[in-house]
Design brief:
By secondary structure, the protein is of the alpha/beta class. Helix content is 33%, strand content 25%.
Length: 316
């Protein structure tokens, strides 16, 4: 069976899929990056291999996306390396061809993608502040002594959501502590946090954007039914959460890899290889570029970061 692999490597989580020619998911995995993308992808590939080991498959294409896409692309010998906007759009359209708006809130950033007739016509990203992201909600859950997985169900029990100033992480935390001290219930505070996440997203990432349905909500925060409800109330329309919404980036880049086959045959034996990265500063011109070198079993396999020919240390 011909198959294709997609990996979405982020600062918080690492996602991967293996699909067949019809884009059916044969294997999938989701795990924490833990600040080490190389080890995270090795663990991911190991899990994917176990899920398909009883099937005779040949990986014809590999795609990577996410914040560490270049590094992991070099590690896996990827045939396609794409940005998150393109990957999420392609993955979502494969399951929801009529989608008009994609809302995505991840661990440390968020984005909005607007589509018309299956084409991306506008987008925006927020990578400057963690307010309203998964890491923000996790820290507030810890402060409240609640598992972040239970946030949504607790929020739905609220009678009157408390207003929380969530435009900034620091202000949100001080406001939350104040509301706790003056006696607001935990349910109302959590519901208020969920509502503020939706409002903050729409007022910043979605500012000036004309949001049309169908609307798909993705990213780790989409699993929070409290935030989903808050978006529906703010937008006045249904917000769809796909069961594979957390895999859309990986699925999209796997689909894209079908258009560009691998130059070298992929083998799961890559798990036994040793990879290391090293940053060097080029002093051959005033740019002083920081060049990232990637080595596989001590052999240089890729490098990037140079802004002129003086900094070339690896030629493909």
């Amino acid at each position: 069976m011909n198959a294709y692999m997609g990996v979405d490597i982020g600062s918080i989580s690492t996602k991967g899929v293996i699909i067949d020619e019809e884009n059916h998911i044969l294997a999938s995995s989701y795990l924490w990056t833990k600040g080490n993308p190389i080890d995270a992808v090795k663990a991911l590939v190991s899990q994917l291999e176990k899920q398909v080991e009883k099937q005779e498959i040949t990986i014809l294409g590999i795609g990577t996306t996410g914040s560490a896409r270049k590094l992991i692309g070099a590690m896996l010998g990827a045939s396609v390396v794409k940005n998150e906007i393109t990957a999420h759009a392609v993955g979502t359209l494969s399951l929801h061809p009529d989608v008009k708006t994609i809302l995505e809130i991840g661990g440390q950033d968020s984005k909005i993608i607007l589509l018309e007739d299956g084409i991306v016509v506008d987008y925006a990203m927020n990578t400057l502040c963690a307010a309203g992201t998964g890491s923000f909600l996790s820290s507030q859950a810890e402060r409240l002594g609640v598992a972040v997985e239970d946030f949504g169900s607790i929020a739905l029990k609220a009678k009157k959501p408390t207003k929380i100033a969530a435009r900034c992480t620091v202000f949100a935390e001080s406001d939350l502590v104040h509301k706790m001290q003056i006696g607001y219930s935990k349910e109302d505070i959590i519901a208020g946090l969920c509502k503020s996440v939706a409002q903050n997203y729409l007022n910043n990432v979605g500012k000036g954007k004309k949001i049309k349905g169908p609307v798909i909500f993705q990213g780790g925060v989409s699993k929070n039914i409290g935030v989903k409800k808050a978006f529906e109330e703010e937008l006045g329309m249904e917000v769809i959460v796909d069961e594979n919404g957390h895999l859309m980036g990986a699925l999209g880049v796997a689909i894209l890899s079908k258009k560009k086959p691998l130059e070298k045959k992929f083998s799961f034996s890559i798990l036994d290889d040793h990879f290391e990265t090293k940053g060097i500063e080029c002093n051959k011109c005033p740019n002083h570029c920081e060049i990232i070198c990637v080595r596989k079993n001590k052999e240089l396999i890729d490098a990037w970061g140079n802004r002129c020919e003086n900094g070339i240390v690896f030629k493909k």
